[in-house]
Design brief:
The complex is a heterodimer of chains A (241) and B (355). With 241 residues, chain A is of the alpha/beta class. Chain A contains ten helices and ten strands. The longest helix of chain A is centred in the last third of the chain and has 16 residues, at 168-183. Chain B has one domain (2-354): ABC transporter involved in vitamin B12 uptake, BtuC (Orthogonal Bundle).
Chain lengths: 241, 355
């Protein structure tokens, strides 16, 4: 078995006086899509932000692609190959779609073939290429946020609730995008509440509660095991949409 | 194509704005011939210098989101650098360049130190730190009176070619003498224009894009791989050097360097107001705002005197428009412009076009 892309060992994170992550252990296998589930306030977003270095772990270790990134600064983590799509999308609204992607590409114009590949599942971005990102709809902003994360090949994608508040047609575009990324063996950690969205995409699943990982296993197993769903999440995931 | 390169692809994007900018440019370029007289030329030169000074501040506030009160300190360093060098060494170009070099080095060093030590803190603390440093510098300039001339400042001679007595050609052109004052004016005009276009290039470069990203969301910019402290510090240094050059131009124009013309907090407030009135994050706003502000500062009083004289029969109105109340009306104009143009004049004109 190859070395994992990312390993979190006993990670604790404090935000001010609050002890949010209380010993997170998580392994992200290379080329797989791992879904992170859990109720609101379980620590999912904090986990992503801790990986990204936006909040530093007070204890524990984070190893990315063989290197310890526990104390690494956010820009260096990004340059090492981790892309982050936050829940609020975090696009730069005063800049155009083109300028947003230029920023993400870091070294000049993005590769044309890769852009065309992105336009294949997010055609709106081509249409509004020179338009200020702030004028896009919510779905288009989400497309831009994901496009920005994948405009250059990255080793690991962290995506926080990409379908939140989006129309079904846009969600369909996102499913296509994630399928394409999976086909390219991109490692993805996806925080999501929409079970129908992740059921067919996820290779493995981790469930968080009270700042800890309480379950790890194949997605296929959890999606059919109603008792396990009841036990971990207090409801059947089939109704959790 | 040529225009695209000159403007770095950043067009006014509004016909009224383009026309206004052309009027400002043509007015300043032809000021010595269109508006004869020392006062008009002084107003035109002040507008040129303020366009540069305000544009350099907009790089900080409008493009990077940094609130600094130390901008006049860098402006003062430029003025004092050139002024004291000319005063001590004598009126030579060597003294001008020596003073300028020292001023730029001092500004760069201060901007670097302030930036590296302070740009990590929250915006309000950074603003307070710059206010403290700028105040300390102003007090220092005043206290070191043997060196700086204290509150009186220093009057000095400039190289011969820039003196009013110097004549490039004996004949007048369109009724205007081609003398040292005119040469100084065009030195100020073309230097300010070149540096303004350079700033336009900077804000439309990949570096400028990162600055705008930092202004919107510095955490997101970090998550994309940009060291925001480094970019902020670079913007701080670039802005400081440009303000220093603007100060040097002011010293050459006035042949004087003193606290009231360069280091005063009133100038800092003027810069802030012009940036807000013109439109933050639009360098063209610096041009429009500076022109309107300096014109109002210089001619509003005269305009009110005429209005007051013409309305002597209407007691209350004549009293309200008395020239002594010009600052009150200037204040009213600012309040109204901020109320009706929250995105500044440039923002409003561009939005008009969009709607």
């Amino acid at each position: 078995m190859s070395e994992p892309m990312l390993t979190l060992t006993g990670v604790h994170t404090h935000i001010g006086q609050y002890h949010i992550l209380q010993g997170v252990d998580l392994i992200l296998p290379r080329g797989e899509l791992t879904v992170l589930l859990g109720r609101n306030g379980a620590g999912k977003t904090t986990t992503l932000r801790t990986i990204m270095g936006l909040w530093h772990a007070s204890r524990g270790a984070l190893v990315f692609d063989g290197s310890d990134i526990t104390r690494t600064a956010t820009p260096d983590i990004a340059c090492a190959g981790i892309a982050y799509v936050p829940e609020n999308m975090g696009i730069f609204s005063d800049l155009t779609v083109h300028e947003n992607l230029l920023l993400a590409a870091r070294d000049g114009e993005p590769d044309k073939a890769r852009l065309e590949w992105i336009f294949g599942f997010f055609p709106a971005l081509k249409k509004f290429w020179n338009q200020a990102a702030g004028t896009l709809s919510g779905g288009q902003k989400q497309m831009l946020a994901i496009a920005r994360a994948i405009v250059e090949p990255r080793k690991l994608l962290l995506v926080d609730e990409p379908t939140k508040g989006l129309a079904p047609a846009i969600i369909h575009s996102l499913i296509t995008a994630f399928r394409e990324l999976k086909a390219m063996e991109t490692t993805i950690l996806l925080v999501e509440q929409n079970f129908n969205f992740v059921k067919s995409l996820g290779d493995s699943v981790a469930v968080m509660d009270d700042g800890r990982i309480v379950h790890v296993g194949p997605m296929a197993e959890l999606s059919v095991d109603l008792d396990l769903q009841q036990k971990l999440l207090g409801l059947s995931l089939d109704t959790h949409q | 194509m040529m225009l695209t390169r000159i403007l770095s692809g950043d067009f006014p994007r509004s016909r009224i704005l383009a026309l206004s900018l052309l009027i400002v440019l043509a007015g300043l370029a032809l000021a010595p011939f269109l508006f004869p007289g020392a006062r008009a030329l002084n107003v035109a030169a002040t507008i040129c210098i303020f366009i540069l000074l305000v544009a350099s501040y907009d790089l900080l506030l409008g493009y990077t989101g940094i609130v600094s009160f130390a901008h006049t300190m860098f402006y003062g360093i430029g003025a004092y650098g050139v002024g004291l060098s000319l005063y001590k060494v004598g009126p030579t170009w060597g003294a001008v360049f020596m003073g300028l070099t020292i001023a730029v080095i001092v500004s760069l060093a201060l901007a670097l130190v302030i930036g590296l030590f302070s740009l990590r803190v929250k915006a309000i603390f950074y603003a307070m730190i710059t206010l403290a440093v700028a105040s300390a510098f102003a007090v220092l300039a005043s206290q070191l009176s043997d060196f700086t001339g204290g509150e009186d400042g220093r009057t000095f001679s400039v190289p011969e070619v820039l003196r009013p007595g110097f004549r490039l050609i004996e004949a007048e052109v369109f009724g205007t003498a081609i003398n040292g004052k005119l040469i100084t004016y065009y030195l100020v005009f073309f230097t300010a224009l070149a540096l303004f276009l350079l700033l336009l290039r900077v804000v439309n470069s990949p570096f400028g894009r990162v600055l705008q990203a930092i202004r919107e969301n510095d955490f997101r910019a970090e998550a994309l791989g940009y060291r925001t402290v480094v970019y902020r510090t670079l913007a701080n240094c670039l802005s400081a050097v440009t303000a220093t050059l603007a100060g040097a131009l002011m010293a050459l124009w006035l042949r004087y360097a003193g606290p009231q013309t360069t280091l005063s907090f009133t100038i800092m407030m003027d810069i802030l107001l012009i940036v807000v009135i013109g439109g933050m994050g639009t360098l063209y706003g610096a041009a429009i705002g500076s022109a309107l502000f300096i014109l109002a500062q210089n001619y509003l009083q005269a305009l009110m005197r005429q209005a007051s004289d013409g309305l002597t029969a209407v007691p209350v109105l004549a009293n309200l428009l008395h020239p002594d109340r010009w600052l009150l009306w200037l204040g009213v104009l600012f309040v109204l412009s901020v109320y009706y143009f929250p995105t500044g004049i440039v923002g409003k004109l561009r939005n008009l076009k969009r709607s």
